[in-house]
Amino acid sequence: MAKTFGAESTADEVLEGIDLSGKRVLVTGVSAGLGVETARSLVAHGATVVGTARDLAKARRALADAGNPAVDLVEVDLASLSSVRKAADDLLARAKPFDVIIANAGVMACPQGKTQDGFETQFGTNHLGHFVFVNRLVPLLNPGARVVTLSSAGHQLSDVNIDDPNFERTPYQAFAAYGRSKTANILYALALDSRLKGRGVRATAIHPGGIQTELARHLTPELIEQLRARISMGAAQASAFRFKSVPQGSATSVWAGFVASADAVGGRYCEDCHVFEVNDDPTSRAGVRSYALDLAHANDLWRKSEEMVGERFPL
User: Fold this and answer.
1) Which residue out of 80, 178, 232, 250 is catalytically annotated?
2) Is the pLDDT of residue 196 over 60?
3) CA–CA distances in Å: residue 170 to residues 89, 112, 120, 159, 164
4) What is the span of the domain harbouring residue 247?
5) Band of residue 315 on the pLDDT scale cut at 50, 70, 90
6) Beta bridge partners of 183
7) Is residue 120 one of the residues assigned to a domain?
8) How far is residue 45's CA from residue 255's CA, in Å, rounded to a whole number?
C-alpha cells in the first residue's frame, strides 16, 4: 500500500526507502533554506546533485552547515540573463543529462527594483530567470524527467499582468509583485508540461508551505503577519495557519519529483504532498486559482516572456 504524506512530512520521510542512485538532479538556490535541505536529502538518498547559487561562498558555508553533502556548485544569478545563459551553456557543454530539475530559488516581497536586464525584480528573478535557464537545459532532460517549479499560495494575491509586467503603469506593491511572479511560476510549469509531455517529460508547480527562511529577509514582523493574514484570507484560517520547518517545506518538491505519479502531477499544482484542485473562493486559501491553470493564459505568458528576454523556445 502506498504511503500517504501530508503537511508535516519531511523530505527524508518522503524519500524513505527510495534509492536515487544514478539520478542526476539540478536544484537552483542552494545557498540557504529549502534549496540546501532539498539538496542534502537528495544526496542522502543517493542522487547526484548540481546546485546553483549567486554567491558560491555562501552556498559552500550553508552546505557545510548541513553536513557537507556532495553538491556540484554552479554560479547562477537569476537576476542576470547573461549569468543565466553562461551557466546554461556551461552545463550544456558538459552534456550530462538530468532526471529532475527543481526550480527552487527566488525572492519575495522585496522593495521595488530592477534586474540587470531592467525587469521588475521579482518577476525577472522568480520567473524570467528560470524561464531562460530551464528552457535552455531542456535538451539535457532524460526521457521521463520532471521539472518542479516552486510557486506559492501567494499566487492567490495576484494574477500575472501581461500588459504591464514591470509595473510601469501600475503602482508597485511588494506583495502584488510577489503574487504575479508566483502565478507566473505555475503558468510556466503548465505551458512547459504541455510542450514536453509528448516526449515523456512532465512539469509541475508546488507550494512548499509557509516557512521562515531567508526568503522573508525583506519582511518586518508586521509585514509577515500581514502576508499571513492575506494568504489565509480569514480569521479562522489565519488562526489555524502554522509555519512549516525547512525539512517539511522540502517534502513536496521531492514528492513531486520522485514519488508521485507523473501523470498525476504533470501540469498541476501541488501542496502538502498532494495535488490541489482549482478553488476561486476568495475567502479560502485552499487550492489553486483558475487563472493560474489556464493554458491559453500560460501560452500568452510564454510568448510575452520570449519577447521580454529576446529569445524564442519552440520546444
Assistant:
1) 178
2) yes
3) 36, 12, 12, 13, 7
4) 11-309
5) confident
6) none
7) yes
8) 13
Active site residue 3: no
Report how many domains make up the chain: 1
In a domain, 172, yes or no: yes
- How confident is the model over 134-147, as a mean pLDDT? 98
Does residue 3 lie in a domain region?
no
On whether residue 161 sits in a domain, the answer given is yes
Catalytic, out of 83, 152, 181, 182: 182
**pLDDT digit string, tens, across residues 24-56:** 999 999 999 999 999 999 999 999 999 999 999
Question: Residue 267: what pLDDT?
Answer: 98
- Catalytic (active site) residue 182: yes
> Which of 41, 83, 151, 181 is labelled catalytic?
151
Per-residue pLDDT tens digits for 164-184 = 999 999 999 999 999 999 999
Give the CA distances from residue 198 to residues 58, 130, 201, 266, 303, in Å, rounded to whole numbers and listed in that order. Answer: 39, 22, 7, 12, 20
Give me the CATH number covering residue 100. 3.40.50.720
Q: Catalytic site residue 41?
A: no
